[in-house]
Amino acid sequence: MQEAMKANKKMIYSFRQNNSGGYYIEPAKHIIVKDAKDSEHATEIALKAGMYLGGVAAGTDCSCCGDRWYGIDSEFNTVDEAIAEAKEFDFGSHEVPQYIIVDDLDIEDTVLE
Q1: 51 Cβ neighbours under 8 A, 6+ residues apart
Q2: What is the pTM of this model?
Q3: Distance CA 71, CA 51 (A)
Q4: In 3D, which of 19, 17, 36 has the Cα closest to residue 79?
Q5: First-to-last CA distance in the chain?
Q6: Could you give the 3-state DSSP secondary structure of residue 46?
Q7: Which residue has the higher pLDDT, 102 or 4?
Q8: What are the pLDDT digits (tens) for 39-65?
Q9: What are phi and psi of 42, to 5 degrees?
Q10: Is 57 left (phi over 0), alpha (psi -120 to 50) or beta?
Q11: Do residues 111 and 99 touch, judged by C-beta distance below 8 A?
């Protein structure tokens, strides 16, 4: 029974953006994915929300700064934990929201000011 409950538990995943080239881009510095089935599912959702991978290889990101988006940065039990970590990485650039919260269906209007 506990194994079945654990298998159905959905986790919270966070993807963090590097300021490649000295700036951040939309949709946000952090994409927080809630209710993902697993890390692969979370990555699919984050990609749909605006994240991309392999930016240096594609010529999109600065080769000296590195890829803009990392793979999964962290895994959390609650959205509040993920938001708290996103707040720790607020480096003062406020042109781009600190975070967005996404799930399979939508993008919420939750952004840090």
Answers
A1: 15, 17, 31, 69
A2: 0.82
A3: 9
A4: 36
A5: 43
A6: helix
A7: 102
A8: 999 999 999 999 999 999 999 999 999
A9: -60, -40
A10: alpha
A11: yes
Q: How far apart are CA 51 and CA 108, in angstroms?
A: 16
The tokens for 16 are 């963090």
Q: How many residues does the chain have?
A: 113
User: How far apart are alpha carbons 25 and 71 in whole angstroms?
Assistant: 16
DSSP 3-state of 65: coil
Name the residue with tokens 């600190």.
98
**Tokens 């692969």 correspond to what residue?**
40
6-21 pLDDT, tens digit per residue, is 456 678 999 999 988 8
Strands, DSSP E only, in the chain?
A: 11-17, 30-36, 69-76, 99-102
